Amino acid sequence: MTGGLLLAGVVIWALGAAWDLTVGAERTWARVAPYAAAAVAGGLVTAAGVQMVLTTPRTVDLGTTLGLGETSLRLDPLAGLFLTLTAGLGAAVSLCMASWVRTAGRVRGHGTAAGYLLLLGSVTTVIVAGDAFTFLFGWESITVAFLVLTSVSRRQAAAATSSWVTAGLGKISGAALLIGFLLLAAHSHSLQLASWARIGPGDLHDVAYALVVAGFGAKVGLVPFQVWLPVGYPSAPGPARAAMAGVAANAGFYGLWRFLGLLGAPPEWLVIVVLLLGGITALLGIVFAAVQTRLDRVIAYSSVENAGVIVVGYGVALAGAATHHVDLVAVGLLAASLQVLAHAVAKSGLFASAAFFEADRGTDEIEELRGVGRQHHTSATTFAVGSLTLAGLPPTIGFVSEWMILESLMQEFRIEGLAVRLAMAAAGALVALTAGVAALCFVRLVGLVVLSRDYLRRGRPTTVHDGAIAGRAAMGMLGGLCLALAAAAPWVVRFIAHGLAPVVPSSVVSGALKAPWVLQPVYTNFSILSPSWLYLAMPIGLVAVFLAAWGLSGGRLLRIRRVPAWRSASSGVMGPDHYSAFGYANVLRHVLGNVLGASRTLVAVDGDSVTPEPGAAADRPPHLEVRTKVVEPVETYLYRPARALWLGLASWARRLQSGRLDAYVAYMLVALLVVLGLVAALR
Question: How crowded is residue 523: how many other Cβ atoms within 10 Å of its Cβ?
């Protein structure tokens, strides 16, 4: 039955893609049909995933279906765990897409739905692949889907750059996996993934391990491969960004989990690199998210941050595997899996709701979206809850996952090796600092986008398209899951324990349940947390504090006091009483500028864009502001010099093309000698 549900889902996705390529998007019903079909297929594949988690693993042999070796599908609990997440979110995002495309002009011609459905099918292929060729076929198909989605609605020259950057990093990811897979296949004499579990420790094992981690890390946005996320995600149309960030990114995390189970203990140096890179990625992502003025770039940089936090948890699991502490593997993978879940649900909700904000206002500038949530009730609620989740605040699932990540990092004292212990301690400090900046980042979004009154005071247009019934239901589900998953955290842990069984015994992961409704980091007598009881304790505490404050104030607590507004001469303060989106993050921007460097430009701000004070002249002269742009270190110091070097080599190669025949023969001879030398060395 599981195979039938999978097959039905894939067939429906394929039919939806064919519909888009043939019928197009000229009529409303033609635009909506592929996404409605995608939602149905997502429900079928989700049911298949749940069955895979709860039933016995099995392998489906498809013979030579893809034409290279034996093709097989692995239907086990780990695949089922990620299928449940990706397909379930895919169904919700598809409903949001169906609502979003109803308005004429948002998608044109052919290709958008086809690229979207190709993405869902490719992620499913990667997750259930049992052999290297099928896995790489699905992996490269994800890159193709990304290229389609980031280029199909291209209207500016800058968008062309983002498409190629996305495709280029995707090819780097695929190349790393291809080389790693070839090394493993050559050593095991098999393309079946399961056969690679028999490869013992050694230099080949370590090199292949590093290539696999780099390949998956490039897809999820690990430093130094994170540069494609802030430009790639915003280039996709509407809620399709949610599918890229909340669905497709999980294929990379699935690969990390799967190959930990296959390759076993990593080298110690790789553990240290993963922990430190994860911590640096998390901090770099959130500080750049906090200083952005465009909403989509804030959310995209937040994906970089969450990728780093997840990879830190994965690094704890690697540390446990390297030191043969199975409990440490369990606590690391459990914490990372909870963070994957929190990020996927919240990020899907943020990108989906932001798509409706931006479609109505025609911009993603935060300053132009001030207070838009006061009219977009459903999407604003989802946006606010998702923001609290990504900030790691209770009572959301993000609080549970980040709590478990930090507790897993506190287990470094159980490891004998000093280097790994120091790496875990450093990663813990970076994650703790990341959590603090994340609160600043998402409080800004909620305050300005959802709660601000500036939108109404400026007399913006009142046209609202907050999604049709299906879209509002999907966004409500995404927002509700951020809260419900926290309340049901013990049940979620039980389900994850079954799903992680191919990597670490479920009985060990289940050690996180100190009591039916109380969690601990697998190790007993360390710390406990009950997210379920927080839903009772927090409201009671809130009411108690309010009553105490009201009583002690003598009833003056609710009295409104009006005083002259405080004014500032610094840039970023607009009118008598509020910060602009730029000004709110100015302090952090200056701190980063002092550390990383910054470029400063003088900008003339239209006087009419500032709310005048009472009694002031209506037509004010332009106000001059100094705008600070923080230097992005990876792009500035790695990719730009590499690009200049590559263009220089290309220019040199062009000059060689007009040389003599004997020179070309000499080049070929040298190349042949180099290849023969490499082959001899490998043998």
Answer: 18
Cis peptide before 564 (omega within 30 of 0): no
Of 464, 205, 501, which is closest to residue 358 (Cα–Cα)?
464
What's the token pair of residue 48? 């298949």
Residue 335 sits in the same domain as residue 475: yes
In 3D space, the residue among 83, 141, 101 whose CA is nearest the CA of residue 117 turns out to be 141
Distance CA 313, CA 496 (A): 15
Location of structure tokens 């990383």:
596
Ranges of H-type helices in 323-461: 326-361, 377-390, 397-409, 418-445, 454-457
List the one residue out of 285, 287, 227, 282 whose CA is nearest residue 585: 287
Please tell me whether the overall predicted TM-score, pTM, comes out greater than 0.70 for this model.
yes
Q: Domain for residue 71, yes or no?
A: no
**439 shares its domain with 500:** yes
C-alpha 503/C-alpha 78 separation (Å) is 8
CB 572 within 8 A of CB 586: yes
The confidence score (pLDDT) of residue 425 equals: 94
- Domain hosting 649: range is 638-682
423 and 488 together in one domain:
yes
**Do 646 and 502 belong to one domain?**
no
Beta-sheet pairing, 518-519 with 513-515 = antiparallel
**pLDDT mean for each 10 residues of the chain (683 residues):** 88 91 82 92 94 90 71 92 95 92 80 92 94 93 92 67 86 93 90 89 91 94 90 89 93 95 93 95 92 90 94 95 93 95 95 88 83 82 93 92 93 89 94 92 87 60 68 92 93 94 92 88 87 86 89 79 58 56 71 70 56 50 66 81 84 71 79 85 67
Asked if residue 393 lies in contact with residue 300, where contact means CB atoms within 8 angstroms, the answer is no
The pLDDT of residue 610 = 42
Look at residues 392, 380, 332, 391 and name the one whose alpha carbon lies nearest to residue 356.
380
Q: 3-class DSSP state for residue 478?
A: helix
Buried b (16+ CB within 10 A) or exposed e, 26-45: eeeebbbbbbbbbbbbbbbb
